[in-house]
Design brief:
The structure holds two protein chains of two kinds. By secondary structure, chain A is α+β, with helices and mostly antiparallel strands. Helices cover 19% and strands 26% of the residues of chain A. Chain A has a three-stranded antiparallel beta sheet, covered by helices on one side. In chain A, a hairpin with a 6-residue loop joins strand 1 (2-9) and strand 2 (16-24). Chain B is an all-alpha fold. Chain B is 67% helix and 2% strand. Chain B has helices at 2-7, 20-39, 41-45, 54-79, 85-94, 110-128, 137-165, 169-188, 200-205, 213-231, 256-266, 270-303, and strands spanning 241-243, 248-250. Chain B has a two-stranded antiparallel sheet with strand order 1-2. In chain B, a hairpin with a 4-residue loop joins strand 1 and strand 2. In chain B, helix 2 packs antiparallel against helix 4 and helix 6 (110-128) runs parallel beside helix 8. Chain B is globular. Chain B starts with a helix and ends with a helix. The chains are: A alpha+beta, B mainly alpha. Chains A and B meet through strand 2 and helix 1 of A and helix 4, helix 7 and helix 12 of B.
């Protein structure tokens, strides 16, 4: 059996979110099992199942080289800028 | 370095480097936990066809279904540490893996289903809530889902006992008998006393455990005794007494010989639990074979 990753959308308008994984022989079984295992309490309006092997992930060891460059660009956040007193709607 | 990281409450994820001394006990703990959920379906499954009403039956069925789901979340979490599902299932069926000793006690009456929900699931929640903050991400996430679902289990158990305790003398006696039999095994669920629990210290340092066995046991007693009083049931412990100065209930020592005996395979139901699990696995094997045959056939027809 293959390993599948399960993503649920709580209701329309929201992102799908990863909730866990399960084993299944094919997509149909993965979808049915995901429904049984992860949506017993109205958690979902939609399900994605994706073979785990199809996911390309970044290497945790590359964390710094990938994400650190953003750390010193604090001007990307609106709070970087001082808004002069008396200026509204900015 | 690793230790500093977990001490700073950074979570460990599957692809991160981790010491073997962290990974191995964690696989053991998570897989034992998964096995407990799976074996734990049996004592309650025993009453599915005999529940006193359709409503009780539907509720119990939902609970047993949850236990299967919890087992699956936990197996999946353990697998992220590099141990296959097959390996874990084989260990359970071969009797080399452990599961919670509590499930080796029998459920002769309907009140036992109440006692399991109230006491066994209550003790499990006490143990599991701190695990939601465990340093290993996939385990912590599985525990969050489980804890959310588990509180329904505890309440349904208490609800059964409330009904019995408001019933006839015979029903109240049945509830008392269930408490008498489940009280001590429930206290044992927190594991040996702190001074007899050699792995606890490391577990705490690595943020797998958050509270010691004795701390959690005390919390459980403090939470549960007033509930027993509400039910009008007597906790079967001569030493039980409220300590005004500490605000805690003092209680007696569980029979640790019994605990070790049951854990090592010599409890009232160990053999039957394992034998039943093996039979269910063998009898259900054809479903898996059929699914795989179907998938293989479907794959060739689409390819052609």
């Amino acid at each position: 059996m293959q390993l599948w990753e399960v993503f649920l959308r709580a209701r329309s308008g929201l992102h799908h979110q990863h909730v866990g994984s399960l084993h299944a022989v094919d997509a149909e079984m993965a979808l049915e099992s995901a429904r049984d295992v992860f949506t017993r309490r109205g958690e979902a309006a939609g399900i994605w199942v994706v073979p785990s092997a199809a996911i390309v992930a970044s290497d945790p060891a590359d964390k710094d080289s990938l994400f650190e460059p953003a750390d010193d660009k604090i001007y990307r956040h609106p709070t970087f800028f001082d808004v002069p007193d008396g200026v509204a709607n900015l | 370095m690793f230790e500093a990281r977990v001490a700073a409450e950074d979570k460990v994820e599957p692809k991160d480097w981790m010491p073997e001394a962290y990974r191995k006990p964690l696989v053991r703990q998570i897989s034992q936990h998964a096995h407990s959920e799976i074996i734990g379906m049996q004592p309650e499954g025993n009453w599915l066809a005999r529940a006193p009403s359709l409503r009780r039956k539907a509720i119990l069925l939902a609970k047993v279904q949850d236990e299967a789901g919890h087992g699956l979340y936990l197996y999946a979490a353990a697998e992220t540490l590099g141990t296959s599902r097959e390996e874990m299932v084989d260990q359970l069926l071969a009797g080399t893996a452990k599961y919670s000793s509590i499930f080796n006690y029998p459920t002769p009456t309907w009140a036992d289903i109440g006692a399991i929900g109230w006491l066994v699931d209550g003790a499990a929640i006490m143990n599991q809530v701190p695990l939601c903050r465990c340093s290993y991400g996939p385990y912590a996430r599985a525990m969050k889902r489980i804890c959310r679902e588990e509180s329904f289990h505890q309440r349904q158990g208490f609800d059964i006992l409330v009904t019995l305790c408001n019933g006839s003398d015979a029903q109240r006696a049945m509830a008392q008998d269930a408490l008498d039999r489940w009280w001590w095994p429930s206290l044992m669920m927190f594991g040996p006393n702190d001074d007899a629990s050699p792995n606890s210290e490391r577990s705490m340092r690595w943020r797998i455990k958050r509270f010691s066995n004795d701390e959690l046991r005390q919390r459980f007693v403090d939470a549960t005794v007033p509930q027993a009083q509400f039910l009008g049931l007597r906790v079967p412990d001569e030493e039980l007494a409220y300590d005004q100065t500490t605000g805690h209930w003092r209680f007696g020592e569980p029979d640790w010989d019994e605990f070790r005996r049951v854990l090592s395979g010599d409890g009232p139901m160990n053999a039957q639990r394992l034998e039943h699990r093996k039979r269910a696995y063998d009898d259900g094997g054809w479903v898996l074979d059929a699914a795989e045959a179907h998938a293989a056939k479907h794959a060739t027809t689409t390819a052609a």
